[in-house]
Automatic annotation (TrEMBL):
Record protein name field: Ectoine/hydroxyectoine ABC transporter ATP-binding protein EhuA
Subcellular localization: Cell membrane
Coiled-coil ranges (or none): none
Species the sequence originates in: Isoptericola peretonis
Domain ABC transporter: 11-256
PANTHER family listed in its UniProt record: AMINO ACID IMPORT ATP-BINDING PROTEIN (PTHR43166), GLUTAMATE_ASPARTATE IMPORT ATP-BINDING PROTEIN GLTL (PTHR43166:SF9)
Cross-referenced SUPFAM superfamilies: P-loop containing nucleoside triphosphate hydrolases
Length: 262
């Protein structure tokens, strides 16, 4: 899907509140991601990075504020001064513009690679099986696994499963791709393969990307903007080069020292 660069952010959080019981994870969070931007979220464990991605996938519900995709309210909207839920049918239309790749791949283990990739395009988007299969084959080529079409996911290595998960997310033709620690569960020697695939996607498409990663090299190569989170708030934002070599905020300096060592 082609992003239309009309100045409307691809993603916008307005005063978003998220609580788990008494734990206020996001307290009126505001930020936006421009169309085609590649933004990395960094910050200490528990600062709310994954929660942001899960809110965008509607895997969690916000307790207040607005989340907008291309200017459309996503899960709730204000009617007068009332904060009301958006009906499921309207929500789904917006939801289909967003794809996510998870740390633990989340593939259907009993399906083949091809079945995993075409499942949502056929059942959610209503594509014909033939069209979905043609597209899946192109994507398998793109992620470097053209020969694994009929393999069961349980027969694949972690790196291969993650590449299938990336192909599956792209098969929905998302405008926005969310990547949550996609290399954390992988052995170090195969991390480079997965990063290579994502670097290629970043280079050859205009998909808006929002990623959470502890791989600073990856953040540097793929993203053009880094947001440092602490306690559910953005404490600093900069381009990767500036953020990683010359962080201004004390919390960023401490965090990067802990992550990068030295
Ligand atoms: N389903 C849940 N139920 C209760 N608390 C939750 C739930 N999900 C997240 N939390 C809490 O919300 C806070 C933010 O968690 P989140 O996973 O977003 O942080 P994070 O910045 O992604 O951390 P990490 O880098 O460790 O993945 C944490 O205090 C966490 O314990």
């Amino acid at each position: 899907m082609t992003n239309t660069s009309n100045g409307t952010p691809a993603i916008e959080f307005r005063d978003v509140v998220k609580r788990f019981g008494d734990n206020v994870v996001l307290d009126k969070l505001n930020f936006s991601v421009a169309q085609g931007d590649r933004v990395t979220l960094i910050g200490p464990s528990g600062s709310g990075k994954t929660t942001i991605l899960r809110l965008l996938m509607t895997l969690e519900e916000a307790n207040g504020g607005l989340i907008l995709i291309d200017g459309d309210p996503y899960t709730h909207e204000y009617k007068g001064d009332k904060w009301v839920e958006i009906p499921e049918k309207r929500r789904r239309v917006v939801r289909n513009r967003v794809g996510m790749v998870f740390q633990q791949f989340n593939l259907f283990p009993n399906m083949t690679v091809l079945e995993n990739i075409i499942e949502a395009p056929v059942h959610v988007l209503g594509l014909s099986k033939k069209d979905a299969t043609d597209r899946a084959e192109q994507l398998l080529e793109q992620v470097g696994m053209p020969d694994k079409r009929d393999a069961r996911c349980t027969q694949l290595s972690g790196g291969q499963q993650q590449r299938v998960a990336i192909a599956r997310a792209l098969a929905m033709d998302p405008e926005i791709l969310l990547l949550d620690e996609v290399t954390s569960a992988l052995d170090p020697e195969i991390v480079a393969d997965v990063l290579g695939v994502l670097r290629d996607i970043a280079r050859t498409t205009d998909i808006t990307m929002l990623l959470v990663t502890h791989e600073m090299q990856f953040a540097r190569e793929v993203s053009n903007r880094v947001l440092m989170f602490d306690h559910g708030q953005i404490v600093e934002e900069a381009d990767p080069e500036t953020m990683f070599t010359n962080p201004k905020h004390e919390r960023t300096q401490e965090f990067l020292k802990a992550v990068l060592g030295g």
